[in-house]
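User: If you would, consider this record:
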Amino acid sequence: MKQFSSNTQSGFTLVELIVVIVVLGILAATALPKFINVSTEARVASVNGVTGALRSAVSLVQAKYYAAGNTAATTVTMQDNSTVTVAAGTGIPAGTAAGIGAALQSTEGFAVDYTTATAVTFRPTNGGGANCQVAYDGSTGLVAQPVTSGC
């Protein structure tokens, strides 16, 4: 009868472990730039998303304004009972927090500058600047083309 030795050891050799570490390092080095680019793409998508939301909000407020039939009114009560400040005669949301800010209902994730009512800017709070924003004109109701060159 053959006896087995209890001194035999099994495992990975040092060369095998080094090869695995090198392969993992190469994979990590090629994947990292792709993840960095994703955050830029996310900011661009978020600016484009708020652009669409602004245009929709203006249209909805104006539709509700004209449906109410009072073209002298300076506020519009929306379906959820929120009040939006508008320009009398046109129903365009004002370039204020009580105007376009209330029409959007949420500006979470954006720094909004209401300093100039004719150029209200929406910038992502995480990495937004002058080259990563969209502007709203409270006098005309127009939403400018988004600027995404610096997101």
Q: What stands out?
A: The first strand starts at residue 75 and ends at 77. The chain has a mean pLDDT of 89. The chain has one domain: 14-136. Helices lie at 14-68, 97-104.
